[in-house]
Fold each of these.
Amino acid sequence: MSSQEIAIEPKVNYLNCDYSIKSWLLTTDHKRIAWLYMMAITFFFTVGGIAATLMRLNLLEPQGLLVEPETYNKLFSIHGIIMVFFFLVPSIPAVMGNFFLPMMLGARDVAFPKLNLLSWYVFMTGGSLVLYAVIAGGVDTGWTFYTPLSTLYLNTHVMAAAGGVFIAGFSSILTGLNFVVTIHKMRAPGLTWFRLPLFVWAMYAASIIFIIGTPVVAISLFLIIVERLFHVGIFDPSLGGDPILFQHLFWFYSHPAVYVMILPSMGVVSELITTFSRKRIFGYHFVAFSSVAIAAIGFLVWGHHMFISGQSVYAGLVFSALSMAVAIPSAVKVFNWTATLYKGSISYEAPMLYALGFIGLFTIGGLTGLFLATTATDQHLHDTYFVIAHFHYIMVGGAVMGYLGGIHYWWPKMTGRLYPDGWARVAAIIVFVGFNLTFFPQFVLGYLGMPRRYAVYPAEFHTLNVISTAGASILGLGYVIPLIYLAWSIRYGPVAGPNPWKATGLEWKTSSPPPTHNFEETPIVTEEPYRYDLLAEEIHVA
Amino acid sequence: MPHAFPIFPQEASTVAPAVDHLFYFLTAVSVFFASLIFLLIFYFAIKYRRRSKDELPPKNQVINNIPLEVTWTVIPMILVAVMYLWGAEIFVRNAMPPPNALEIFVIGKQWMWHIEHSNGKREINALHIPAGVPVKLTMTSQDVIHDFSVPAFRMKMDVVPDRYTTEWFEATQPGKYRLFCDQYCGMGHALMRGWVYVMSPQDYQRWLTSGVTGQTMAQQGEALYNQLGCVTCHGTGKGPPFVGLYGRPVKLSDGTTVIANDAYIRESILEPSAQIVNGYRAIMPTFKGQVSEEQILQLTAYIKSLASTESNTGAP
């Protein structure tokens, strides 16, 4: 089927089949649920972003420009809790995974569509509880909820916030379960495991982490609530508990959660790099298995958050070695993406700019991770701005760049419309520049010793903080521009056609926007993914 | 006007240059690989740019190359192994204070640092130490977790309630260095900071003895020993004696042996029934809530002062 041929849009698609509010709120269509998630996490991203903006403004002056330390502590707590649990963790899986995983498999929907809708409601219930905590006066535990501070010493809305995260965790578990079953049972005829797009492999790895890891963090947050309510000594030493135990439980999930945030982005980038260089991925098996390796080893490295916590030196040494091991599959991925570009036919639409930006920023984020996995340097850098810079290179430079790249890549499929590519490229470059200006100075701040979570700071750190805040204002602009042109494109954008990028995935083999059941007839897969070498025939026939 | 800003932190301890050399090695490796990736991407991006809309790359491309995959797996493996071992060597050294280290006690509480020297001299949010002498901090917290961080020494360690953590360093340069709490500890976290004053040993001695009219920590501990009634059992043979106890192995009633260190003594005061010395009955009441962390340190100092006494009577 040639892409140019299908100029006629089918009359009925998943968007225009029913316009009622009820049809959205009670939908079991994975594509509509993806939109519900996208609306929700865009909202949460905005809330988290406003908190970040206020923090950066406050740090313009060493003594604090805007707010009291108490308020600043609430701002960074809200920023962290919302961005991690209500944006980054659900972002790509719940939006692009929901929308495209079934389509990439040639399926009509996920395995359990009603469970899928339920997971959104569970997510919104948790989110509402956290928003209540924010509005009712805030929470100042930090996103890490360290004990005994969180259980005994703070009088803010800790229980609402921890409860919200606890509830939202079940939405992750349900989504992970749904994806694993879908990938196992719903693949189109001929779609063997090694014919799966790498995005599907990444989703699989992320889903495993959802299922295994989320219950642990849910339980640890639940125990915080139990200790606060009933004074049962679990973490608080004055009640006979162990404060370090909480850190073990928390990081057992929260380190793998980092990979939940980055693996899906890696999956997206594998799709983008192949499409925009019109080449098969270099080392398919290595890229696929490196995702699984990252997910597996990711469960064994939690103790690198605790080198200086009072944990035994031997434990520190073991966790350091295991953390080093995670660097290997990550490096393998970067090398394979770079090799994929070799002798390609590379074009620079906005999604590709995001993908290349991802590789660059992820490389820096990954390499600086080695400084923190190395015990002796971590002993200096731990809990400083170096850590902040490092994980923002992974979480924002990696995960958010991947998310934006994916949104720009699949937007024509989701909406049937094209956005103005010029604006999109400008926004991608603004994001890249703004990001580096914001976070690179923080590596230096951390090396100099500036601690994280400081509302006020010594004057010698002033200049670098001003540069960082200046960068943040550019970064913020880069996030606002896409909101405008993407919204504009839904109504005014040119019609996209089924396959504007001439990509090979199954999701491009149906109309845009897709019909409710995705495919008019179930596709039969006869090839490995990314067979851009077969594109020649199609183009030449056209 | 913004303050002029440095790029490199001060190096003021014996371990600081070692950490910095490792840091430079890591930076060099990072810069090399980041540059390699960036240059390759830029080179490919320009050389293989799509020149017309329908242009396709040449056919029959290599998409798998096992020797290449092995190469770029093994080289990073070797490099991270070097980083690991290099870091581990320093980390282990950092975890082992020399036996002759000068011992100082730190109690963290929201939001200040209490510091007590062996001779009983106290200070708040300031730590005076001699240059060229290894210093060991024994630290605990009265409330939440704090972290005693001195960037110029490249050293930090969490300060945890209900247990002792230690860190040690040997300052090299007399001067004044920042002390931060690095573990978020609630509202005043950013204000929980102070200074470490490194002095010449002579100046330190002068500082240490000036203005001290009270007793040493051990003397205060001895007073407590009498005042709290410890003496009625531990001085009469009803309870295990303290002379020669500190640093020695203690045989417990369950057959195991522990070393009588700070943590053991602390637990024996707060939870006496947790570890019963072999041959004694579990009759001691807990002193939880009756003694402060500072008093426990003083009692420990007193017991420690009895360690070197020659008359090693009745110690298990």
Note: Chain A touches chain B through 99 residues (CB under 8 Å).
Amino acid sequence: MKADPKGVLTGAHFIDGDHACSEGALAAGCRFVAGYPITPSTEVVERIAERFPHIGGIFIQMEDEIASSIAIQGAVWGGKKAMTVTSGPGFSLMMEHIGYAAMTETPCVFVDVQRAGPSTGLPTQPAQGDMMQARWGSHGDYSIIALSPNSPQECFDLTIKAFNLSEQFRVPVMFMMDECVGHMIERVMIPPADEIEILPRRFYEGAKENYMLYHANGEMVPPMVKAGDGYNIHVTGLTHDERGYPSMTVATQEKLIPRLIDKIKLNEEKIADYREDQIEDAEIVVVTYGITSRTAIPAIEQARKEGLKVGHLRLIVVWPFPEKYIRSLASKVKAIVVPELNQGQVVLEVERCAAGKVPVKLVPHVGGTVHNPKDIYNAIISSNNQKAE
Amino acid sequence: MPEELYEIETEVPGNTVEEFLRMERMPHIWCPGCGIGTSVNCFAHALETSGLDLQKVSVVSGIGCTGRVAGYVNLDSFHTTHGRAIPFATGLKLANPNLKVVVYSGDGDLTAIGGNHFIHACRRNLDMTVILINNFTYGMTGGQVAPTTPLTATATTTPYGNFEQSFNLPYLAESCGAVYVARWTTYHVRHLTKAIKEALAKKGFSFIEVLSPCPTLYSRRNKIGDGLDQMIYYQESSEIKHGADTKTVGLDFQGKIVVGKFVDIERPTYLDAMNDYYSKRLGDKFVHYNG
């Protein structure tokens, strides 16, 4: 289905990543946003608050991030596409409701414009320190999808993708921006509405008698209904059977939890999205995501100039982690370098998949600014000296 | 046992409440003497005569004994996270204003962990009905002190008695902007049924506090008898005072209970205020929001 032209501001814009994210949400058909002010994400909701009255959406500034992260889920069961927007401290507060969305299979989007932490940290400066939290932050076992844009254009494009994925798999999708991408101003092209592909919510339309809310009918993802449709649904965060009824037994848990995980895990390759650059002949591959992909480019170019066979793999979908791809990469190359604006998070996944086949070198950063490309360059050089034979 | 006793009809003929319940989920988890089931009975009777399209009624609960109401009513029902029934209901109602949204939860859920959401929903005058079952304690977790536990009452986490001032909930709701505020006990089933019916018909944030016995934890620990003893207490100590100044209706341990309808006023709801304001401010550019 094509985007509703009402929400699409077709044309060339010179805007920051936060505003581009807002436009992406509007184009995706998001018509309910709940949020709480927090730097450096606030511009996203500010623009939405300005735009919604003109297109028939509703923004509510809730009393905190906890309220925001559950209000969007109420709105989804009321029939809307919905998102909330925050940064580190607020993201921490939202964790319980990421679990609720995963457990109740409520499609929605959580935008996290990352800043340096822990705690209040460096509120106006970038980091990528919430990547593991995005994957594992809520208690218990579940799966989510996380995307990481590296430009305002991608903040637009990938916000739409985030909504589409959330509908396709009925999962909360984490949109992992950072302060740098959020506040970077670049040209953003918004295409005409009829060129924007939107995945509508898949609604069940069968008989009301004996209807079962979580009966997936042999598939991994059951269709949805919404409140008011006459199905008398029951939605609970408790372990539930296919009817949605609480059933606190090991048997029910064994049936439910693997499906919640497998619907993402088994579709890893379908969900995967990455960009390869000069991978074909590479001996060393720099694996990046988000803003770090851009600071890595001068380092890679310099090393290439000096004759080193360096390639670049940029993860757009970070979760689910592209395990199969990294495994096969690790058997082809001689070293992997992972720059991150944190003390080592996604590198742990790279190491796990490389499984000792090649050395994996982290280029850590405490956050507050972006990497100096020199640090990434130096890591490439030192990896070249230590690379696997 | 005499033979004829076995022939007693155990099914109550014409129990009109059953169609409002998910009978396949019975028996419920509530203890003998607990008042939550009584309140659900009143709620069902109120719905029965409300004239509402039941397809459009949603019940939202938090966590706790009362939080389980959502699991038993045969309506669209949402059992959310602890304390967050109101913000969930906020999203639900704003997404589809044609729904009649009822929040049904306990005192700990709505006024301790969920207290912030409660006061802001009152302030915004969100169009929803909040039925708060106040049993003065946390039942599901074993009887801990709550923001509603009266001074000196014993709980597992106040083994020597509670020294914290408790909330006067009708006063809290009124001062934060609720347009309908009432208090009844589970003894007052007819009044409570009528109040729920009124609240359902009310536009804006309507709030009913329902005092309800918790014989297993609160009453036993405080040595005030069983469920029946609490009903006798409610009967003997309640005074109906419609329109009472909510400042004066605070509760003491086993003291006098003022019940009645305290507040019934008109004020624009969140959505009406938004639509009216934006229509004036933005004129034709505003797309009127109705879901």
Note: The radius of gyration of chain B is 20 Å.
